[in-house]
Predict the structure.
Amino acid sequence: DGGITQSPKYLFRKEGQNVTLSCEQNLNHDAMYWYRQDPGQGLRLIYYSQIVNDFQKGDIAEGYSVSREKKESFPLTVTSAQKNPTAFYLCASSRDRGQTYEQYFGPGTRLTVT
Amino acid sequence: GQQVMQIPQYQHVQEGEDFTTYCNSSTTLSNIQWYKQRPGGHPVFLIQLVKSGEVKKQKRLTFQFGEAKKNSSLHITATQTTDVGTYFCAGGASYDKVIFGPGTSLSVIP
């Protein structure tokens, strides 16, 4: 059963702590993305990766970091430098980075930082 | 910078009524994609339009891409409770850039 998995579904952290969100895909897709979703604001791109060991900043990369050591995995670290980390985080993948490819989304991780 | 807007932000309809959401870009797009996100869920791809003036149908859903490739619409005929969710358009800008609109949240009153 192919798809994208994200874990955990809900995550709670204290302010000042770094936290890593997991994203795994078995679709053999080259491109992977991280989005942040806040109420009424749609999807904002944090980071994307087109190939292993390469990634690019999106529109709101400050306070976040990523790695792409394997094709299947694209973890996102929310650092203590991110001023408003509480949000719904969505990971997605597509066959290629090109705009003509549909994106497949994972179930998301809802992060709450207090 | 380049923006993709959607109107309305929210829409409440009685079951059986029609619904339309509009997507507008500040610049010409090479393609438009539509996604649906159910409450508590994740976005799911619905369709992609590429050609100027293109119209595609999926059962009760009709998608249009404007002649100038700067706007698009999604029309649902005779809404059902299963149509509830947020509908996002995503515009293809440069080769590798897709910009998501803020979405239109649809509520259907049974």
Summary: Chain A touches chain B through 20 residues (CB under 8 Å).
